[in-house]
Amino acid sequence: MLPYGRQHVDATDVEAVVAALGSDWLTTGPRVARFEAELEAVAGAPCVTVTNGTVALHAAYAAARIGTDDEVITTPMTFVATASAAAMLGATVVFADVEEDTGNIDPVAVEAAVTSRTRAVTAVDYAGHPAEYDALRKVADRAEATLLADAAHAIGSTYRGRPVGSLADLTTFSFFPTKNMTTAEGGAVAATDPALVERLRTFRTVGLVRDRAKMRYPEEGGWHQEVHEFGLNYRLPDVLCALGSTQLARLDMFKQRRAHLTARYDELLADVPGLRLPPRRAWVDPLRHLYPVRIRDGRRREVYDRMRAAGIGVQVNYMPVYWHPAFEDLGYRRGMCPVAEDFYAEQLSLPLFVDLSEADQDRVIETLRTVLGG
């Protein structure tokens, strides 16, 4: 089965991991700080590494002090963790509909959803295409809310010349194997405010305070450390940060390869009937995580089944979050975001990854043409 996504690992990655395994540090050590500094250069803001992308969202909401009685406005067109991480902290999730073309959260819908309880607005850079952050910033600032970006798909993308990671108050990344780069499992949070960076570092280290100037009882011995606010052990280990550093060094190459494959899809699928290709706005330079097409005329299920029967691992990204039973049980109902539901009914992700050969891509294209009769 040709997968829809797959990691690219080469000899430099293996060598880096082996070197880390032979060092004195397997958990948090010098490679963590090095990887975080390298991430900052790409993201445009200081970064704090954590154990995965879901944890990154949890840590970001915790740093923003999201809790009971707060409302978080976000998109339904995302992986469930974007919303569930806020719900687990006691917040009420408010879903705003998406733009018809990009599948990203619609700033107009966000503004209509704002109430006196709104404490955060969380955008998602769907498929690697950044959301409309300038408009979202205006809405968030008027609401005195924190602007978050779930950029699990988008490290390496830019919006109006600015890197994803510098556009929101807090930006989360995922380094799962199918993403644009990998640490096997891992994630990070970028923050533009030094106070948020410090809060993130403390939260991901069980809340421990080791700076004597900040301790309540600094007269204790050299072993002493304190917890002022509860946190969790979300530290990404040195051995995985070693992999992250070598992956990040090739991010430009990954971007060029994905852009080349995206351009081939754009060209070779342009005339296929019943198919709508993903847009790219002029002011966005995306690092495409997904190539999401739209299958028209109610044929998405048929195309999905026939493509997979042919050995091509297409995928659907995503079912509207509030369709999950956990949200249904909280009272959310279908029909809340009709644009997102229409998007879901047609969406299909075609294989896209660095090692996808043109021959395999041609097989995807010809199979899709055959299925759609084009």
Automatic annotation (TrEMBL):
Belongs to the DegT/DnrJ/EryC1 family. The lineage of its organism: Bacteria, Bacillati, Actinomycetota, Actinomycetes, Micromonosporales. Its cofactor is pyridoxal 5'-phosphate. Keywords: Pyridoxal phosphate. The keyword Transferase does not apply. This is UDP-4-amino-4, 6-dideoxy-N-acetyl-beta-L-altrosamine transaminase. One of its GO terms (biological process) is polysaccharide biosynthetic process. The active site is at K179 (proton acceptor). It comes from the Bacteria. GO terms for molecular function: pyridoxal phosphate binding; transaminase activity. The keyword Metal-binding does not apply. PANTHER family: DTDP-4-AMINO-4,6-DIDEOXYGALACTOSE TRANSAMINASE, TRANSAMINASE. The modification N6-(pyridoxal phosphate)lysine is found at K179. It comes from Mangrovihabitans endophyticus. InterPro entries: DegT/StrS_aminotransferase, PyrdxlP-dep_Trfase, PyrdxlP-dep_Trfase_major, PyrdxlP-dep_Trfase_small. Pfam families: DegT_DnrJ_EryC1.
